[in-house]
């Protein structure tokens, strides 16, 4: 789906035009259900027909990212166990479905070098904006371990390699929380379903040296119907592990 980009800050219009050229964003709002807005402070994604829903943006410095960085449980988190973080071991990771970068940031916080791959131009632009704003902050060292690539993972993964490839494909969520409801409503409007999600597993196995980790809701079937060798469960999700 084509997403228009408008600029609310006249002095940032040159940057807005750079984003349009780089990602192919248009200017005409038309009847687009989502719009990117460049403000004085950041890039935001808004749902045009539900203004009360609020904006989506990437913030690695404050809010939920800061709380999880400080109080998330460190290497005791399920994602850390699944990826294989141990004392003295910081595997390199490709996050093949980066989204808003939350899991990638957690892994980078714990010491991993993370390559983020995001195929949707609007989401990639939000990610790039969040990374840029965090470069000169208290998390600059963490951001330095994160590199973003824009494009389909199925196409980009053959040219990449890491110890671990991590996948979290879009899947219908049943959670009731306001945050998930807002983000999922906007993301499902914007991105739709991951129709090629099953093809990701084979591509991920080709790019991973040691394992592929796939995050799934607890009620979902394994990716591509392939049974994992093991899983790390949480209250609502699980991390399926496929050793190479």
TrEMBL record:
Cellular location(s): Cytoplasm
Cellular component GO terms, alphabetical: cytoplasm
Record's catalysed reaction(s): guanosine(1516) in 16S rRNA + S-adenosyl-L-methionine = N(2)-methylguanosine(1516) in 16S rRNA + S-adenosyl-L-homocysteine + H(+)
Top-level taxonomic group: Bacteria
Binding site for S-adenosyl-L-methionine: 102-103, 118-119, 168
GO molecular function terms listed in the Swiss-Prot or TrEMBL record: rRNA (guanine-N2-)-methyltransferase activity
Cross-referenced HAMAP family: 16SrRNA_methyltr_J
Entry annotated with the keyword Methyltransferase: yes
Name of encoding gene: rsmJ
Pfam families given in the database record: SAM_MT (PF04445)
Originating species: Gallaecimonas xiamenensis 3-C-1
EC number: 2.1.1.242
Enzyme class: transferase
Family: Belongs to the methyltransferase superfamily. RsmJ family.
Protein's name in the database: Ribosomal RNA small subunit methyltransferase J
């Amino acid at each position: 789906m084509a997403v228009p980009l408008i600029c609310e800050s006249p002095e940032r219009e040159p940057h807005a035009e750079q984003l349009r050229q780089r990602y192919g964003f248009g200017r005409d709002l038309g009847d687009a259900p989502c719009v990117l807005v460049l403000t004085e402070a950041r890039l935001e994604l808004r749902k045009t027909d539900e203004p009360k829903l609020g904006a989506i943006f990437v913030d690695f410095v404050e809010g939920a990212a800061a709380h999880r960085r400080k109080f998330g449980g460190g290497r005791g988190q399920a994602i850390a166990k699944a990826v294989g973080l141990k004392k003295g071991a910081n595997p390199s990771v490709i996050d093949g479905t980066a989204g808003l970068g939350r899991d990638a940031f957690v892994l980078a916080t714990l010491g991993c070098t993370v390559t983020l791959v995001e195929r949707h131009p609007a989401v990639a632009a939000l990610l790039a904006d969040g990374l840029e704003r965090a470069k000169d902050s208290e998390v600059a060292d963490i951001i330095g371990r994160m590199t973003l690539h824009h494009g389909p993972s199925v196409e980009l993964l053959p040219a990449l390699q890491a110890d671990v490839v991590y996948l979290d494909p879009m899947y219908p969520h049943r959670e009731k929380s306001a945050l998930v409801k807002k983000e999922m409503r906007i993301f499902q409007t914007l991105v739709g379903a991951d129709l090629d999600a099953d093809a990701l597993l084979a591509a991920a196995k080709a790019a991973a040296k040691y394992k592929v980790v796939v995050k799934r809701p607890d009620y979902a079937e394994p990716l591509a119907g392939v049974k994992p060798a093991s899983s790390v469960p949480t209250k609502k999700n699980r991390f399926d592990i496929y050793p190479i």
